[in-house]
Amino acid sequence: MDVLKNKITLSMQKKILDDCFRKDMPLAEILTQKGLNYDSLRYCDYSDIIPYYEENEILDDKEKLHDSIPAVSFFSGAGGLNIGFEYAGFNNLVSIEFNEVFCNTLRGNNPNKKVIGPPDNNGDVREREIVSSELEKIIGTAKPFDGVFHGGPPCQPFSIAANQRFSKDSENFKRQGFDDEEKGELLFDYLWYIKRFRPKAFLIENVAGIEDCDDGGKIKNALDEIATLGYTISPPKIINAAYYGVPQNRMRWINIGTRMNKAIDFPLPNDYVTACFNTFGRSLKDVENHQTRKHNAESVKRYMKLAYGTRDKLGRVDRLNPYLPSKTVIAGGTKGGGRSHLHPYSPRTISVRECARLQTFPDTYIFTGSTARQFTQVGNAVPPLLAYKIAMKIREGL
Fold this sequence. Notes:
Elements lengths: L9 H14 L3 H7 L35 E6 L5 H8 L2 E7 L3 H10 L4 E3 L11 H12 L8 E4 L8 H4 L22 H12 L3 E7 L10 H10 L4 E2 L3 E4 L10 E8 L38 H7 L7 E2 L4 E2 L33 H7 L12 H10 L3 H14 L1
Parallel strand pairs: 1-2, 1-4, 2-3, 4-5
Antiparallel strand pairs: 5-8, 6-8, 7-8, 9-10
């Protein structure tokens, strides 16, 4: 990969930026006039660019197993867990999702799969009887359910990143945890469905910070109650997805339970983290969701001075280091939209598709809605490759 092959010189770049200021013209317009784009621009520093030969794992290279085990997806989002479980041989009978844009993505990628969610019906798991009735129409009323439930209740109440978007003087800066009126109790709503339908196994996923918010032991007490119904529950694990083939530092809290007499084994981590070098070496020709932001000249002037791994404090964006895992892909606020990190080789923020690759989504998976909502979907998701590896262990255990 020749990073500098199609880059303009620093002197030419300086002249273009100066022209923007002098003529009061948008940078995107001048670049177009010259037959250039944002990937023609460069940083001042490209230290130590050498080949990186450790190939990243790509989910599309895995053999997709026969979908022989039924599953139900809760808090489905854009479908990260769904994809991983499907590759591991699970048949996602239905996805339950509250956000209509996310439902559109789920339906668009899997038109033959059932979705409980708007605009067709109610996907709010807090409406327990309504959602249960819809679920029974699909999986039947027989209990226990001879399949698997998987889901990651919304993590914003427990997430450091989600709350530190606000200033320290804001009441939103402190994590609300279980006191969050809208989302803080969704984990326990999910456990209610597990108790009602008694699946053969279940997976709960969340941010690592969820345990910090559990001073009163609510999670332990709730899981102890589940255990009295005949479940063996593995001790919760906090893992970094970068040790499981995902080219991104992403700390997650994972809990697995099963109606068997032994706990489900957890996949073994690699003894190394996965760098994002090869993610940015792959071609982006003819892929969807790759619209890049049209930064102004002032922003590019700041970005181009950054070294690997350093932050532009004004824009609160980081230039990624290709020899390390990416920093965590974030969703952004539900009203403002996601923001991404800076590309390691071009002084611009990375696209939805580039974020999706850091999350290990297949390139064939298309995200719907505005660009801001696409970032939200990608940032909220469980990396499909991590989901696949966990699902494979659940499959082995069953």
